[in-house]
Write a structure and sequence with these properties.
CATH superfamily of the largest domain: DD-peptidase/beta-lactamase superfamily
Shape: elongated
Helix content: 25-40%
Oligomer: single chain
CATH topology of the largest domain: Beta-lactamase
């Protein structure tokens, strides 16, 4: 009996031992499986998360290249911006951190939390931008309380600063935050959602020179996200500095002369095509785009009837008025319809068909040759020349003079204007061209449309003997070390064509433009400056048609119906160094409104009187 009990106890013990061994083996198998899962299957991800808890990569934005005028005067630079961010992983408890932070930056916790909640898919390991440019005072407060603010950091980034507010705004352009469509377009592969890019003007056109290359650094952080040490740094490469062709003094003078008016002024060196000034009025403050603009501010800009966001110098399209008589004169002489001795009689009106076409001078100019017709802007003379030429021959010469197509200036959204033909009208309206319409075209009215920059290129070509230059706005590019970069692309002088005129024809036209300023009956006599010979042509572009018995006195017309005032000029007449194009919207007569602007601009540049 005893032996049996001992055997039973031994069997029971062995069974219990086997069960225990199986349990131990099962536990070890589970541990090994878990270890395999963590080390092999999830090892890479867990390693990444582990390293991310202590080692992080931070981006370093490159300083954007500086912009200078032709004389080395700084126009655009960078200033430090203190940008406040939060890393949600380190900011726990978030509600407590946000509440403390709101006290130090004078805002509400609700405002900060709403920003975070609006951004879906936000990474808890990456800095989330809460507020740009908090200022030095807020920076000092946050640094003093940084141990109460886990996960909160302030990064110093270069911020664009336009030194002369409103100055050359349409030429220089501005930076603004990249939007989602631009990010998706593939045109900005190195940008992220917080980057600022050139949206307009020079800032956009020369982004490849200006933007620089991003850097970065590898840092070790503690449990609250505070940087313990910097492990490695790759410095950002600053953008190149660029020198524009404009003269700041002349640019500011042009803008001052346009103050309170809508219009544009462009000045060029006729020998090179270099733009000396480019002003469009009204202007805007570029810094408001960088600092952040409210909906109210934006709506005020886009709803302004004088359209401050339009660069009128190369986007504004206007009837050329009597400026176009330069083209009609060239066409008439080159086609042999008139010569320097041709005389037409002006009695103040010209009967064509069943309509009287009037001259601006009601009493008429009497006997007029081509030089006198240009100097005194006789409409009757050019009606008769235009009638003999026809619209299509006029159009050919206008196109050959550079009208009806973009000048090629390296800025976005340049418009091409309009040079009408009989075929164009048929396509556009379905109606045949009427011969009477040619008379209007011949004096720059009707369907004709030009930009101030186009007529400047034409005027410069007349001044320099017939060469049409591509407008140049970039003079040189330099590295931060001062080394000149000459790739010959953007800074290359380029001839885009020549006027369809002989030397003799141009000499006659230039004589007429000189007499417009320097003879008693010329239309631009108030342009005179002692010691400087100026040549020019006025123009008064009607906004609405006038009836035959309606007054032509601009003082009796509502301001928004007044004619646009034109004046183009170059000086000195014998050796031109500057050409100017001026348009004042609803300014009335060119002689009284546009001429004084050009005169003072020439005086500023050449230093006369």
């Amino acid at each position: 009996m005893g032996e049996y009990l001992r055997t039973a106890d031994s069997d029971w013990f062995k069974q219990r031992l086997i069960v225990a061994m199986y349990c131990v083996i099962a536990v070890f198998v589970m541990l090994i499986c878990r270890l395999f899962y963590l080390q092999i299957i999830e090892g890479e991800e867990l390693r990444r998360l582990s390293e991310n808890n202590c080692i992080r990569l931070q981006s370093i934005d490159p300083p954007r290249g500086l912009i200078y005028d032709r004389n080395g005067i700084l126009l655009v630079d960078n200033r430090p911006s203190f940008d406040l961010s939060i890393i949600l992983k380190d900011a726990k408890p978030i509600s407590h951190t946000i509440e403390k932070l709101s006290e130090y930056i004078k805002t509400t916790p609700e405002d900060l939390m709403s920003q975070i909640k609006k951004c879906k898919g936000i990474s808890v390991y990456k800095p989330f931008l809460l507020k740009r440019d908090i200022g030095r005072n807020a920076l000092a407060v946050i640094n003093a309380h940084k141990y109460e603010l886990p996960g909160v950091e302030v990064n110093v980034r270069p911020k664009r600063h336009y030194i002369y507010r409103h100055t050359a705004a349409h030429l220089i352009g501005y930076l603004s935050k990249i939007n989602s469509d631009e990010l998706k377009s593939g045109k900005y592969p190195l940008c992220n959602s917080e980057d600022f890019i050139g949206k307009f003007g020079i800032e956009k056109a020369y982004k490849s020179y200006l933007r620089g290359e991003r850097g970065g650094r590898q840092v070790e952080v503690n449990a609250t996200g505070q940087i313990v040490r910097v492990l490695k740094t790759v410095n950002a490469s600053p953008g190149h500095n660029i020198y524009l062709t404009i003269d700041l003094k002349l640019q500011q003078k042009a803008e001052k002369l346009l103050e309170g008016k809508a219009g544009a002024v462009v000045a060029m060196d006729p020998a090179t095509g270099e733009i000396l000034a480019l002003a469009s009025s009204p202007s805007f403050d570029q810094n408001s785009f960088v600092n952040g603009m409210s909906h109210k501010q934006w709506n005020a800009l886009v709803s302004n009837r004088f359209m401050p966001m339009i660069n009128k110098a190369l986007q504004g399209e206007y009837p050329p008025a009597s400026i176009y008589k330069i083209v009609t004169a060239i066409a008439g002489m080159e086609e042999g319809i008139i010569n320097k001795d041709t005389i037409f009689y002006c009695q103040g009106h010209y009967k064509f068909g069943d309509r009287d076409f009037r001259c601006w001078k009601k009493t008429g100019h009497g006997n007029v040759d081509i030089v006198t017709a240009l100097a005194e802007s006789c409409d009757i003379f050019f009606y008769r020349v235009g009638q003999k030429l026809g619209v299509d021959r006029l159009a050919w010469y206008a196109n050959a003079c550079g009208l009806g197509s973009a000048t090629g200036i390296n800025l976005d959204n340049e418009t091409s204007g309009l040079v009408p033909t009989a075929a164009w009208k048929k396509r556009r309206t379905g109606a045949a061209w009427q011969q009477g319409e040619t008379l209007s075209i011949a004096i720059g009215q009707g369907y004709n449309l030009v930009t101030p920059l186009q007529v400047l290129v034409l005027t410069s070509a007349v001044a320099n003997g017939g060469v049409r230059h591509k407008p140049l706005i970039l003079k040189t590019v330099e590295t931060v070390e001062g080394e000149t970069i000459d790739d010959g692309f953007y800074t290359k002088r380029e001839i885009t064509g020549k006027l369809p005129a002989s030397r003799q024809t141009l000499d006659i036209v230039k004589k007429g433009l000189w007499q417009a300023v320097n003879t008693e009956k010329g239309t631009a006599t108030i342009a005179r400056i002692d010691g400087i010979n100026i040549s020019g042509k006025t123009g008064t572009a009607q906004v609405v048609g006038r009836k035959e018995n309606e007054t032509s006195d601009e003082q009796d017309v509502a301001s928004h119906l007044k004619s646009h005032a034109w004046f183009v000029a170059f000086a000195p007449s014998e050796d031109p160094q500057i050409a100017v194009s001026v348009i004042v919207e609803h300014g009335g007569h060119g002689s009284s409104t546009a001429v004084p602007i050009a005169r003072e601009l020439i005086r500023t540049y050449l230093g006369g009187g």
